[in-house]
Amino acid sequence: MRSFAEIDIEDNGNYLKMLSAVSKLSGLFSESGVPFINYRVAENIFCKSFNADNLSRSDTAFDANYNSTGVGLKTFVCNSNNSNEKVAEFNSLSRILNDFQGVNLAHKLAEFRNERINLANRLYGIENSIYHIVARRNKELILFETDYDKIDIENINSVKKNNASLQFEDGKNSYSFNYSKSTLFRKFFIPENAFKLPIDILEDPYSLLLDLFEDKNLKTANDKLIKGVNYVILPLYGYKNKERFVFEKSGLNQWNAGGRKRNFGEVYIPIPIEIHKQFPNFFPNRDEQFELKIPTGEIFTAKVCQENSKALMTNPNNALSDWLLRNVFQLIEGDIVTIEKMNELGFDSVIITKDNEGQFKIDKAKINSYEQFKI
Fold it and tell me: Are 4 and 134 a contacting pair, CB within 8 Å?
């Protein structure tokens, strides 16, 4: 695959131009000669330039989907030829990880990291993956690609530990795990053939901004996420003794309920009554069908149903279970969804978005997203 810098140059694109333009405005945020680029800005520039799907909102293993290639986007200051950068957080699994040490901890971290990558592959139909790096030095950006491999568990070696962290290698990459932050880091090396983009930071970016916006009728953003207007967060769990809990006979485990014979595809996503009270116009009326697009692009027929409109279901119902239970959670028929499984995969909620035409989409949302949403 050609580098993204090469693709941009050959296609007469705007990627390098936009990176340069943002970097020139670094004086707004810093007095350093090293260009300043917020990581979210770098992600948005990449996705806009290459018409890639932006996955950063879903907090998945990849930041972008470029033609079924999962792209991890990193931007960081690097004054040497390498830098240790965060690749995964395991806050929700810290209690489990505390039971492991040394090589056993390295193996468990690798399992969790690899499963997060596998989850993203399943969710978004990813066939290949790669890291795209924008390293920043004095007056220049350094762009390059490197592998986005899973950790080779069988080859884990050179395991070392101290009071603060664990270090290990897998024959190709070097990793370190910070105990207190439950964060996994990987060492990235800058290759000699990396693309270098010179940057001249503007001395007075404020005057440029004043001139740019003076007497100009510029379009304002209309695609931002607005709570209850174009998105809501739905939990995949309930509460038991004030703790998150997945009930064994309702919601995603509705098929396990008693009273009558049920099939394994009988599931629903719970809609808390507070959602309807606060945002009564977000969903269509009860039993009114609408289209719901999943991350792979497939479109389901869905509806809000049951008493108090408490359930989001698909027609046929097993379309939801085949996707969410079989493909995403990788459960076989007869296995129930648990909060432990959600913690392992790093999500316990879904985000439902809708556009101006009323088209709905569903994607995963990271741990505690609903708790933050309902505040």
Answer: no
Q: What element of type H or E holds 67?
A: none
Kindly report, residue by residue over 315-334, the tens digit of the pLDDT: 999 999 999 999 999 999 88
Angle, vertex CA 231, rays to CA 228 and CA 232, nearest 5: 70
pLDDT bracket for residue 143 (50, 70, 90): very high
pLDDT digits (tens, 9 = 90+) for 11-28: 999 999 999 999 999 999
Q: What is the tens place of the pLDDT at every residue in 57-95?
A: 778 999 999 999 999 999 999 999 999 999 999 998 999
Phi, psi of 349, deg, nearest 5: -145, 170
Rounded to an integer, what is the distance from CA 116 to the centroid of its chain?
Answer: 10
Among residues 275, 328, 329, the alpha carbon closest in space to that of 298 is found at 328
Q: Quick count: other Cβ atoms within 10 Å of Cβ 196?
A: 15
d(C-alpha 102, C-alpha 97), whole Å: 11
Alpha helices in 227-313 (DSSP H): 273-278
Two tokens at 306? 């049951």
With a CB cutoff of 8 Å and minimum separation 6, the contacts of 48 are 14, 18
Task: Give 340's contacts (C-beta < 8 A, 6+ positions apart).
Answer: none
Q: Which of 302, 318, 329, 301 is nearest to 123 (CA)?
A: 329
Both tokens assigned to 100? 């492991």
Instruction: Output the pLDDT for position 203.
Output: 92
3-state secondary structure of 161: strand
271-to-12, 58, 283, 289 alpha-carbon distances in Å: 47, 19, 10, 16
- How many other CB atoms are there within 10 angstroms of residue 194's CB atom? 18
| φ/ψ (deg, to 5) at 328 | -80, -55
* Interatomic CA distance for residues 234 and 11, integer angstroms: 41
Give me the residues paired with residue 71 across strands.
Answer: 64, 130
CA angle 375, 59, 42 (to 5 degrees): 110
Q: How would you list the strands of the sheet with 174-178, edge to edge?
A: 82-89, 183-189, 174-178, 165-169, 157-161
Tell me how far apart the alpha carbons of residues 351 and 206 are, in angstroms, rounded to a whole number: 38
Angle of helix 39-50 relative to helix 15-24, nearest 10 degrees, comes to 150
Helix and strand numbers (H, E) in the chain are 10, 20
